[in-house]
Design a protein that fits this description.
Helix content: 25-40%
Bound molecules: adenosine-5'-diphosphate, magnesium ion
Radius of gyration: 34 Å
Number of helices: 22
Largest sheet: 9 strands, mixed
Strand order of the largest sheet: 1-6-5-4-7-3-2-8-9
Shape: elongated
Distance between the termini: 99 Å
Length: 649
């Protein structure tokens, strides 16, 4: 028998990331060791949830017995042990290997990769402290961990064992009923380093009441009946004589079903950690109970940090849907619009059908009503934060601003609210962000529109010659350097009756006085032949050459027509495409600039002067550099400049 077992015993290496993670865990980077129990209990709770969900759609899956999570300490075992036993979904052999031997969560794996590049030290410790290590946290308190599990619907069980070094073993095993049993061979008690006596009933009771009270399945402590000292003295003191007692430790009342005034901050935080796999504290907690035409309870969390995959295509929304306290959907997407996918939490309602599919839910009137209420609530919380505590809101904005910007194009119902939530950099202050409302309030009376300019970075935008006249007039310009800003301005037409206008597009006429206008028309007439000649020379890249109303210092600038893409967007779109179509630009000249005036004189004297054609090219290249665009032909440009320098000396 023993021989047969040995033959089946296979040894596996942990994935490199897991090995690294285990090292960090074992070297006690987490100060609060107690939370290993929360992690194991929450895994067991997830396993019950999963069993229920699978049983809904797969008739061959039948739950055996009432769901429970048993906590069984043994102080008398050779190495003191703590066993957790659930009758949840269990794992197949393959699932054990992939779930326990590798890290699937992109965030954790990525974090570990970035850790590798840094020397291990304080920073590393802090970084890892933000990530949940789930099952592996058991190695904080145990030298050896055994796991026996059998998947519902399968006949054989799997035994897994590891001491937390580089490898683990797997063998076939037997288990009565489906579910998972985890046995921790406990490290010696070491209170100085946070290792409490985890085989002791009061320690376990305390931790479970503190961290797991909201778990909806009964957590049953299976331990020796307490005997008071007197009685113990009289009766036979032998261990065998003692009775085993079972006691449910948690109140099982889900946290969201309780009155907000009765829930402690710490309970919310614990709950957040079990559902989010995020070990940092939640940034904002929203506990809402709807009691109107439709009854529901919602407990929502805004995380402190945006998960790394938030802007990946596959990013999952974080809301769990319960109906009458039974989980019906693990990660439900129709309760909040996609742009609010960073919100984690749970929604429970007795007014929804229990046996549901995604499709039928989508059309459910009650779901739509709950969704409306939740969106309103979340945006309301953010609006209040923006108005009441700008510093805090700016912190939020740094993490999730891009998601809110996404919403501007997606959620037309909430358009106005979302527009008010937007924050931008501007020419006014290099540090502080501004809202559109504040911008409008500051607008001088003669300013007609909200001006902005997009570009790859603040410094590139700042140096764009298009801004000169705006600066001179004291008109503030929003600097939009986030790639999604290009999309925001596509759907953000106006704000409080003021149109949004790009500084780099269309005709700009900031001087209002009549006499100036007359003067301009005269100038335009005089320049016409030169402008036409330049237009012809630059035909390939330029669709129009005209006099500028936006320059005060520079000789020339390149701009776009009202509905052209900005050069910044064009470059972003062209990334990866070989023959991306190029838009022709508009070149504007500053008639107040010496170079432009002299060029005109030269042209007037001799329209065939070769210098005119060369200057056309140089001015165009100059315009490209000024806005941060690449030159079309850097070699040619350099030759022209070299010749020019020669002539100048
Ligand atoms: P997480 O819970 O965040 O996924 P864990 O490290 O806590 O990460 O657990 C890893 C995986 O192991 C779980 O996702 C689950 O698939 C599996 N697992 C852990 N404990 C159990 C259990 N008691 N029953 C079934 N599967 C489990
Ligand atoms: Mg877990």
């Amino acid at each position: 028998m023993a021989v047969a077992e040995k033959e089946q015993l296979e040894t596996f290496e942990f994935q490199a990331e897991v090995q690294q993670l285990l090292k960090l865990v074992i070297n006690s980077l987490y100060t609060d060791k107690d939370i290993f129990l929360r992690e194991l209990v929450s895994n067991a709770s997830d396993a019950h949830d999963r069993l229920r969900l699978e049983a809904l759609t797969r008739p061959e899956i039948v739950a055996e017995g009432e769901p429970e999570i048993r906590v069984i300490p043994d102080e008398k075992a050779r190495t003191r042990t703590l066993t957790l036993r659930d009758n949840g979904i269990g794992m197949s052999r393959q699932e054990v290997i992939s779930n326990i031997g590798t890290i699937a969560k992109s965030g954790t794996a990525e974090m570990l990769r970035s850790l590798k590049e840094k020397p291990a030290g304080e920073g590393a410790a802090q970084l890892i402290g933000q990530f949940g290590v789930g099952f592996y946290s058991s190695f904080m308190v145990a030298d050896r961990v055994e796991l026996v599990t059998r998947r519902a619907g399968e006949a054989t069980a799997t035994h897994w064992e590891s001491t937390g070094d580089g490898s683990y073993t797997i063998s076939e095993a037997e288990r009565e009923g489906h579910g998972t049993t985890i046995t921790l061979h406990l490290k010696p008690v070491d209170r100085e380093n946070g290792i409490d006596d985890y085989a002791e009933r009061w320690t376990l009771t305390r931790i479970i009441k503190q961290h797991c009270d909201f778990i909806t399945y009964p957590i049953v402590l299976v331990a020796e009946k307490e005997v008071d000292a007197m009685e113990a003295g009289q009766d036979a003191p032998e261990a065998e004589a003692r009775e085993i007692e079972e006691k449910v430790l948690n109140s099982r009342l889900p946290i969201w079903a309780r009155s907000p005034s009765e829930v402690k901050e710490e309970e919310y935080r614990d709950y957040y950690k079990t559902i989010s796999h995020d070990w940092t504290e939640p940034f904002e907690i929203v506990h809402q109970r709807g009691e109107g035409t439709i009854e529901y309870q919602a407990l929502l969390f805004i995380p402190s940090k945006a998960p790394r995959d938030l802007f990946y295509v596959g990013a999952k929304p974080g809301l769990k849907l319960y109906v009458k306290r039974v989980l019906v959907m693990e990660s439900y997407e129709d309760l909040l619009p996609r742009y609010l996918r960073f919100v984690r939490g749970v929604v429970d309602s007795p007014d929804l059908p229990l046996n549901v599919s995604r499709e039928t839910l989508q059309d459910d009137r009650n779901i739509r009503k709950i969704r409306q209420a939740l969106v309103k609530k979340v945006l309301g919380v953010l609006t209040a934060m923006q108005e009441g505590n700008r510093e805090r809101y700016t912190e939020f904005w740094g993490q999730f601003g891009r998601a809110i910007k996404e919403g501007v194009g997606q959620d037309h119902e909430q358009r106005e609210t979302l527009n008010k939530l937007l924050m931008f950099e501007s020419s006014r202050d290099p540090e502080a962000l501004t809202t559109l409302g504040e911008y409008v309030e500051r607008m001088p009376e003669e300013q007609q529109a909200i001006y902005y300019l997009t570009g790859p970075s603040r410094s590139v935008i700042e140096n764009n010659p298009s801004l000169e006249m705006f600066r001179e007039k004291g008109f503030e310009v929003l600097y939009l350097s986030d790639p999604v800003d290009e999309l925001v301005v596509q759907s953000l037409w106006d704000f409080e009756g003021k149109k949004l206008k790009s500084v780099g597009k269309g005709v700009v006429d900031l001087g209002g006085e009549e006499e100036k206008k007359d003067e301009k028309t005269g100038e335009e007439e005089a320049y016409k032949p030169l402008l036409e000649a330049l237009e012809k020379k630059l035909e390939t890249w330029v669709k129009q050459v005209r006099l500028s109303g936006r320059l005060s210092k520079s000789p020339a600038v390149l701009v776009g027509a009202e509905h052209d893409y900005s050069p910044h967007l064009e470059r972003m779109l062209a990334t990866g495409i070989n023959d991306a179509p190029k838009q022709r630009r508009i070149m504007e000249l500053n008639p107040g600039h010496e170079v432009v005036r002299k060029l005109k004189a030269r042209f007037d004297a001799n329209p065939e002067d070769p210098a005119v054609a060369e200057y056309a090219e140089i001015l165009f290249g100059w315009g490209l550099i000024a806005e941060g665009s690449p030159l079309h032909d850097p070699v040619r440009f350099n030759q022209l400049v070299a010749e020019l320098m020669g002539r100048g000396l």
